[in-house]
TrEMBL record, chain A:
Keywords: ATP-binding, Nucleotide-binding. Residues 8-237 form the ABC transporter domain. Pfam families: ABC_tran. CDD domains: ABC_DR_subfamily_A. One of its GO terms (molecular function) is ATP hydrolysis activity. InterPro entries: AAA+_ATPase, ABC_transporter-like_ATP-bd, P-loop_NTPase. It comes from Breznakibacter xylanolyticus. This is ABC-2 type transport system ATP-binding protein.
TrEMBL record, chain B:
This is ABC-2 type transport system permease protein. Belongs to the ABC-2 integral membrane protein family. InterPro entries: ABC-2_transporter_component (IPR051449), ABC2_TM (IPR013525), ABC2_TM_bact-type (IPR047817). It holds the Pfam family ABC2_membrane_3. Residues 128-369 form the ABC transmembrane type-2 domain. It comes from Breznakibacter xylanolyticus.
Amino acid sequence: MTHTETVITVSHLYKKFGKFTANDDLNFEVYRGEIFGFLGANGAGKTTAMRILCGLSSPTSGTAMVAGYNVAEQPELVKRNIGYMSQKFSLYEDLTIWENMRLYAGIYGVTGKAFRDRAENLLSELHFLNHRHELIAGLSLGWKQKLAFTVALIHRPAIVFLDEPTGGVDPVTRRQFWEMIYEAAHQGTTIFVTTHYMDEAEYCDRITIMADGKIKALDTPGNLKASMGVETMNEVFVGLTR
Amino acid sequence: MRTLLFLIQKEFLQIFRNKVLLRLMLVLPVVQLIVLVNAATLDMKDNCVIIVDQDGTSMSQGLISKFNASPFFRVLDITPELEPAMKRFRGERIDAILVIPHRMEKDYHRSGSSSVQLLTNAINSTRAQLTYSYTQALVNDYNGQIGIAQSSVTGSPVRVNASWRYWFNPELNYKYYMLPGILVILVTIIGMFMAAINLVREKEMGTLEQINVTPVRRSQFITAKLVPFWMIGMFELALGLIIGKLLYHIPFEGSLVVLFLFAGVYLVAMLALGLLISTSVQTQQQVLFMSYFFLLIFIMMSGLFTPVENMPDWGQAFNRINPLYYFIETMRRVLLKGSGFADILPLLAGVGAIALVALPLAIYSYKKTN
């Protein structure tokens, strides 16, 4: 797959909290339709960077263009074009699956028949259409995560940001989750995903490894392994972040 | 616009799904109005009094019988000695001692005047003052009686007596005075606390972050938080007025339309203040503490218990920014006095100004990007 059109451009991005530098001169580009993996130890600055790209946090300096808009100057226009799944599960537990979908679709102006078709389609793919009137609170973590991803896709965003989407999820569900990611990428959605699982890193088109707020490496999994002369992504990760 | 409707729909779904909260919203006003209106009363009955009758004449007997006949006083004991009475005064819950000196009747006949002494228990100063006033009234009354008796004997002219009527609450029913105020507090607490806690809970749960990453406008989000609780507040007011009518027969002298119009503006102001607090803090604990802090000041200054006119100038000035003051005043004026729209217009303008400042501030202080 060749990617030419950039949808995210980050240059000289800094984020400082007092004296602590969470993001230290980040520079990278993400292409349309690719699965871009964001790796790093806990506290390396992944979530901070992702929150800046989503317009939830403003950069201290530097620029980040997402879907054609500057996140510092036009965060609300960025938000029109992205989906986001936070590290902490954040659908409304006291609403049903259907009500959550209707709310988020409605916010983006997907209403009426367009919404029903879209929601039924997404839930059918999950084989979960019959459960649509169940409260989120009663679902297992695996289902919650898959539904959060589905809701993030409901308005057909150009880019979806996933912050550790498979944390605490069983291996079978993780596999299903990655099938969903592939399906979305196949339909042209750019996927920006953070993870701690090195097998998942292998599924990405390109990956970035962060440590101490800096980007230590950015390439395809194959090239990274070759350049370091190791067999697995695990060794790449340990080698770069230690 | 449609986004706003989706957000409001979501709030209502959540509120109506919370059965505990719904039950509380119905039970709370009923219980509060029954308990508080009956408990918070300044009406005094059965003031315990000991009369020290050192005179022992028909004139002192006459005064004592006035006390015995009064519903405000309960005469515990009549004794000729001061010492045992003082002993009991120190040890027991006694409101006052009336001392009738032993030359009272003599002095009266000789010089045309005499005096009695009243010792009141001023631990509760309000009660002490009322005891004094009631005693004064009784003694004056008695004065009038013996004056007439005297004048019929001596032929001197009868003194002119002032008579009075209490307007707007002729029976001085303290419940009529308290109920509107308690209703205001009820509506305020239910509206303001629920909205404020609701918003900050979304922060704690993390659901707010999901909203923040959507293109929802800040004004839409705050409005969606305000509207449901505004409606609940209006409902609570209606419920409270019905209870007041059924249980206490509170008069509706003025127009309910005016009252609800005012309540509508008031609730916008109060809910905006609540939301302003919740947008500036992070946890439910903080929001509760902050709301409680402001509400307590607002309530104590509002004139619910003590007349605003008696407050120092700075206190009266403070009430210009106290929404509760405006609403309690309006409630009492409209319900008891029958004030119309034109009469409460200055109050409406005051609370309207608070709303006009607080609402944009709440929207402004809600940050989608930090």
